Amino acid sequence: MKRYRSMIGLRPNKIEEYKRLHAAVWPEILSNIKECHMSSYSIFLHQLPEGNHYLFSYLEYTGVDIKADSARMAANPKVQDWWALCKPCQEPLSNRAEGDWWSNLEEVFHAN
Amino acid sequence: MKRYRSMIGLRPNKIEEYKRLHAAVWPEILSNIKECHMSSYSIFLHQLPEGNHYLFSYLEYTGVDIKADSARMAANPKVQDWWALCKPCQEPLSNRAEGDWWSNLEEVFHAN
After folding, report:
1. DSSP for A64-83, written as a single string
2. With an 8 Å Cβ cutoff, is B41 touching chain A?
3. What is the pLDDT of residue B62?
């Protein structure tokens, strides 16, 4: 199992919409997460002192090829519909890696 | 089980020291984490586009009173020695809640 954590900006005028969407995630999205070998998926929110809001995701991946599973997730039409609602709420970090939407964080410690 | 996530700043001149410390956490600290009913404890690091570095912690709490367990952790002399090394590396967020060192994040989504 491998842990992935990432972050992204959340537009200030979209905070309530994003929270509302995630209080009732579609069943197809939840089952797709499992099918793509991801679990313990959580998203947290925080406002930094300078005023910007950020989202922080955490997930545990139990498959063998996260690139293939991520591509399978991205190809799912229902996921595409879901992302069409979520992405306008988000503001990717300008220093993210090429091709990324969320920015991956570096793990410096883990204890089971 | 309840999930806790928090964040704090990391001083730019202390990044390597913090990573070095956390690449070899003392056994007494690891066993104390378990004794205080905390597991899946991880810390991630990321630099925001404006240049500041931040640490993000994630843990799962399986006890019944996290305030009591946190107080027990803080009273452990070995933990106090460990924190005396870690705290000078960290820079708490100015908008943290009173009495906090790390800032707690708000959970907006979770799927098992």
Report:
1. S-HHHHHHHHHH-HHHHHHH
2. yes
3. 96
Q: Do B95 and A44 touch (CB under 8 A)?
A: no
At B112 the pLDDT is 82
B71 pLDDT exceeds 90? Answer: yes
ipTM of the complex: 0.90
- Nearest alpha carbon to residue B10 among B41, B39, B70, B51: B51
CB contact under 8 A, A111 and B3: no
Give the predicted TM-score (pTM) of the model.
Answer: 0.92
CATH architecture observed for domain B2-104: 2-Layer Sandwich (3.30)
Yes or no, beta carbons of A111 and B43 under 8 Å apart: no
d(CA B24, CA A109): 9
- Marked catalytic residue, from B22, B46, B53, B110: B22
| Among candidates B25, B39, B105 on the partner chain, residue whose Cβ is nearest the Cβ of A45 | B105
Sequential DSSP letters for B40-104: EEEEEEEE-TTS-EEEEEEEEE-SS-HHHHHHHHHH-HHHHHHHHHHGGGEE--TTPPTT-SSEE
Output the CA angle B104-B101-B69, nearest 5 degrees. Answer: 75
Looking at residue A58, its pLDDT comes to 92
